[in-house]
Amino acid sequence: MASEIKVTEDVVSCSDNGQHPLVYINLKSGRGQCQYCGQVFVRVEPESNPEDQQAA
Ligand SMILES: [Zn+2]
């Protein structure tokens, strides 16, 4: 059973390690699922951004 994969990209690609044609999945709505293998991708915010945390 596939689990959710967390990504920080708006678009991910999936080919299930070559088991099906490469497809791109749009995650702009927050999550998406591969139409071939059913893998679910969830878009998350980047955990840390060094340039964003500096108080200087
Ligand atoms: Zn897939």
Which range does the strand content fall in?
Answer: 25-35%
Poorly predicted regions are none
Please count the helical segments: 1
| Major sheet attributes | 3 strands, mixed
Shape: elongated
Describe the structure.
The chain is elongated, with a radius of gyration of 14 Å. It has one helix at residues 50-53, and strands at residues 5-7, 11-14, 23-26, 31-33, 40-43. The strands form two sheets. The chain has a three-stranded mixed sheet, with no helix packed on it. Strands 2-3 form a two-stranded antiparallel ribbon. The chain contains one helix and five strands. Helix content is 7%, strand content 32%. The model has no long low-confidence stretch (mean pLDDT 90). It is mostly beta strands and 56 residues long. The chain has one domain (5-45). It binds zinc ion (ZN). Zinc ion (ZN) is lined by residues 14, 16, 20, 34, 36-37, 39. Zinc ion binds at residues 14, 16, 20, 34, 36-37, 39.
